[in-house]
Design goal:
Jelly Rolls; about 190 residues; alpha+beta; nine-stranded antiparallel β-sheet; about 15% helix; 2 helices
């Protein structure tokens, strides 16, 4: 029989604060997604109902079609893999489509916010794909606030960041050029 000690070694299920997938999409695939997004009618992004001061960006939603099914399949595969490894949330799927987002200089941004709240489906995981070449713009960093200090995500084209939707985050103002991203939210049953 093992000797009993005063320390209880416990390995609980842990949820990581964020995860990433490097080179999730190639440069040419990112260009295809940008072309698909730009072909849509872009509208002004909204936040918190209609709080214009927090968000300045242009968006369009991509829906599943023959042209986009490969994107949805890749996003679902990445989210499934990262969820199993780092979050272990009970998920049901992508209920809102994929949001193509365009931030242009000078100053388009999305101030500090969370992706879950009243009036939205139960968003559990947030997904951001960096579509732009980092040399094409300045500013525009995606930053997570895991403490008081901002944690910037990598600016590499094809890089995916995934984090719990309750995480405070922002996209800093773009000061030069254009930043493109693809965003998704994975939904599920309410947390209990």
């Amino acid at each position: 029989m093992d000797e009993v000690s005063g320390v209880w070694h416990f390995n609980p299920d842990r949820t990581e604060p964020w995860a990433y997938w490097d080179e999730a999409f190639s440069a040419s695939e990112c260009e295809k997604i940008i072309a698909l997004g730009e072909a849509q009618t872009l509208i002004k992004g909204k936040a918190g109902g209609d709080i214009k001061a927090i968000r300045k960006s242009d968006i369009a939603f991509l829906t599943i079609s023959d042209e986009t099914s490969w994107i949805f399949q890749r996003v679902a595969g990445i989210l499934t893999s990262l969820n199993e490894r780092f979050f272990r949330f009970d998920l049901t799927g992508l209920a809102e489509g994929l949001q193509f987002t365009k931030y242009t200089a000078p100053g388009q941004r999305y101030g500090r916010h969370v992706d879950c709240g009243i009036g939205t489906p139960v968003r559990k995981l947030s997904f951001t794909l960096q579509l732009s070449d980092p040399d094409d713009y300045e500013g525009g960093d995606l930053c997570l606030y895991l403490s008081e200090k901002a944690t910037p995500m990598q600016r590499k084209r094809g890089y995916v960041a995934v984090f719990p939707s309750w995480t405070l985050h922002e996209v800093k103002p773009v000061t030069k050029g254009t930043r493109y991203s693809l965003v998704a939210w994975v939904t599920g049953k309410p947390f209990v």
